[in-house]
Design goal:
Structural class: alpha/beta
Largest sheet: 6 strands, parallel
Amino acid sequence: MLDVPIGVDSLDSVVEAAIRSVQSRGGPFTFACANPHSLVVAEQDEVFRRALQACSAVVADGSGVTFAARLLRIDVGPRITGTDFFLGTMKQLDRIGGKAFFLGSADPVLERVKQRAARDFPRVTVETLSPPFGVWSTEQQAEIMRKIHASRPDVLWVGMTAPKQEKWIYAHAAECDVPVIGAIGAVFDYYAGTVRRAPQWICNLGVEWLYRLLGEPKRLWRRTLISGPQFLWLLLRERMRARQ
C-alpha cells in the first residue's frame, strides 16, 4: 500500500516469528505499524519509506488502512495494533523467560511501565532508558548504544514519535545486536496508564481514531482531518495509475 509492504499474517504468526528470533538469538526482527498518517508521511519522506520497507513486519494499525484495503481490494491482513504485538510478545517472552529494554518516553512513564511489567510478566527482566529530548549528539547516541549493549536484551521496545522511531531503528538495528526491535510509540503511555486507550467496544467499531481525536484535539487534528483525506486521495491515484 503506497509502496509499503503491509503483512497479511495473523497476530499469532507475527509474535511467533519474533519469539523464534529471540530463541535463535538471530534477527533483528523489526516491527512497525502502518496507519493512514504514517503512510502519507512515508509518501513524502523517502528515508521513512525505506525504513518501513526494511522492517521484518509492518502491520495494519488503524481502521483507516483496513477500510481502504477493502474498498480498493488490497490484501493487508487483519488489523494489528502496536499494543497487540507488545502484549503478545511480552506474554511469550514471559513464558520462556527473557529481558526487555524500553527506550523512549519520560522517566515517570518508564517507572510505571516497570512496575506494571513486574506484575504482568514476572519472568521478564525490564530495563529502561529515557533518552535526551531532541536531536542526539554523537556522544549521546554512543551512550544509548552502550547501555543497550550492556543490557543485552531479547526485545528492544522503542517508544518515540513516528517517523523518528522507525528511522532510528533503520539506522541502528544491526548495531543494537538485539533479536527483536519494535517501534510501538504510544504503547508506552497506554501500558503505563498515563494516556487512556479507547474502550474495546469503540476499537471494535473502528472509531478509535475519533476517541483519540476528542481526547487530544490539538495534537491529533491535523493527522486525522488532513492526513485522512490525503491518504484516500493517494490510494485512489495509485489505483488509477495501476489501471492505466
